[in-house]
């Protein structure tokens, strides 16, 4: 019975680790980019959906700067591995 509990605990730890890893990868880019730092990713008249389909960010609240722009990469330090 105890062996089965250990397997369940190991499976839960593994799944949790994988989910957290995926979430961490998803947070390596952000659309919070200063207007002067925006690198154009679209074309005049691009729609929000066209911009998103290119994997880019859309923000039309700042005139004179690209509305469709590349996301900013966030430097995420690697996690330290723990030993069991």
Layout: helices, strands, pairs:
Layout (H helix, E strand, L loop, with lengths): L1 H25 L2 E2 L17 H6 L3 E2 L9 E2 L2 E2 L11
Antiparallel strand pairs: 1-4, 2-3
| Named CATH topology of one domain | Spasmolytic Protein, domain 1
Query: Which shape, going by the Cα principal axes?
Result: elongated
What is the strand content? 5-15%
Instruction: Give the class from helix and strand content and strand pairing.
Output: alpha+beta
Q: Write down how many β-strands occur, each being a DSSP E stretch of 2 or more residues.
A: 4
Which ranges are low-confidence, i.e. pLDDT below 50, for 5 or more consecutive residues? none
Q: In the CATH hierarchy, what is the class of one domain?
A: Few Secondary Structures
Proper CATH architecture of one domain: Irregular
N- to C-terminal distance: 22 Å
The radius of gyration over CA amounts to 20 Å
Mean pLDDT score: 79
Order of H and E elements: HEHEEE
- Helix % is 25-40%
Biggest β-sheet description: 2 strands, antiparallel
Features:
84 residues, alpha+beta, Spasmolytic Protein, domain 1, two-stranded antiparallel ribbon, two-stranded antiparallel sheet, 37% helix, 10% strand, signal, TFF1 isoform 1, P_trefoil_dom, P_trefoil_CS, disulfide bond
């Amino acid at each position: 019975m105890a062996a089965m509990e250990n397997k369940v605990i190991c499976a839960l730890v593994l799944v949790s680790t994988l989910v957290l890893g995926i979430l961490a990868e998803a947070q390596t880019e952000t659309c919070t980019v200063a207007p002067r730092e925006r690198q154009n990713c679209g074309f005049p008249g691009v729609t929000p959906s066209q911009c998103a389909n290119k994997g880019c960010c859309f923000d039309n609240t700042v005139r004179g700067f690209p509305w469709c722009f590349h996301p900013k990469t966030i430097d995420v330090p690697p996690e330290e591995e723990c030993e069991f």
